[in-house]
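Technical annex B. To support the medicinal chemistry partners, we prepared a structural model of the target in complex with flavin-adenine dinucleotide, based solely on the information shown next.
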Amino acid sequence: MAATVGPPPPNRPASAPRIAVVGGGIAGLAFALAAHRVGLECTVYEKSRQPRDGEAGLQLGPNAVRSLYRLGAGPGLRAVSALPAELDFRRWDDGTSLLRVPIRPGYAERFGAEHHVLLRADLREVLLRLLPAGTVRYGGRCVGLHESADDVRIDFADGASAVADVLIGADGAHSCVRAHTHPYEAPVHSGMDAYRAVVPVGATGLGRAPAVRLWLGTDRHFLCYPVAGGRRVNLVLVAPAESDESWGKPVEAERVARTLAHWDPAVAALIRTCAELHRRPLFDRDPLPSWSTPRTTLIGDAAHPMLPHQAQGACQAIEDALALATLLAHAGRPGIAEALRRYHALRAPRTARVQADSREYGALMHSPAGAAFLAGTTAEELIDLMAPTYAYDIEEQALATAPT
Ligand SMILES: Cc1cc2nc3c(=O)[nH]c(=O)nc-3n(C[C@H](O)[C@H](O)[C@H](O)COP(=O)(O)OP(=O)(O)OC[C@H]3O[C@@H](n4cnc5c(N)ncnc54)[C@H](O)[C@@H]3O)c2cc1C
């Protein structure tokens, strides 16, 4: 697929804005790359001292993959991803098949891109390698903002500060940028936790057959898929939350496996291939009425954290990044507030829909109705249900929204 987001728009105003991004996760790095591709300079301030993702995988649907290819990330992405041939939904208790959905080459033919599965750290590396050196400043923890009619000042924990024409909060679900620009709204805990680990493929007995496998049970589900070009496997169990004492701390695999006593034994066996899993609570948020002030806006989880049941949180962050960079490139300094207004008008309905769908999919998946639904659905019908998410072309939408 050709990289179509390349040269700056021919009518790009000479007074390109100085852009600061707080947060160097997927949203912040994808925005920096999209900005670079349309000729805008930006600096990303990341609070960690060095790149950091932990061990976890990510599914990227065709909507995000198409965008990343256009940003020139295609070769890097292919080198570190696995491309699943099918989605394989199974019953929780005996592992028998509910529905198998072949997705290669069907997704590429229908949506213009494949479904990729990869390590988060690998995606970050792919994005970082495409950015000019020095774009990301590590150890820059934002602790305050001061927005005036002329600019925004960002204050950091070490006493330093930076000034920009526009500030983008890409600092995740507990965004400090949002806390400075909007009334506080606590994220909503779903009552579920995710346990994650990445193991060598050889330990799993799954072979190299590239599939996303999902066991559906009432109140929990288990998911696994290949990452690191098929050399490793990402394991995820989503289950009712325990006390919050061990959030973020490793949990012994044996303890997790014992909670699956009546499940298909293949699931507990997969969990026992690692020593421990990392547990984190699953949060989302009701859609916010506004994301922006005249010089500050939000992207990714800072704007719209969502439950992972549709595997779209990072995908929507990538769409945000491409849309915002496109709109800012057409705006120039005098047009920043209008560009941020158009950005919110474009992205809010789309991301609110995906947030709501992700909650709905989770509720369905964790009820007996979920298995019954899949058993009575064809592969084509399931792909039709995903089509509005996957066929959506964010670049086309952003260009249609930009002032001419
Ligand atoms: C279990 C699970 C599975 C998931 N699976 C998928 C999937 O398969 N596909 C998918 O698309 N999505 C998935 N998601 C969602 C996805 O992980 C998130 O939507 C995505 O990571 C959001 O990226 P982000 O950059 O907006 O936020 P984050 O990844 O949270 O990054 C925010 C960054 O900002 C930095 N930061 C925070 N505060 C400050 C500060 N004050 N100053 C400077 N820097 C700061 C942080 O250090 C971090 O680097 C999943 C989520 C979970 C929990």
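Notes passed to the chemistry partners:
Confidence is low (pLDDT under 50) at residues 1-12.
Residues 19-82+115-187+285-368+378-401 form a domain with the FAD/NAD(P)-binding domain fold (CATH 3.50.50.60).
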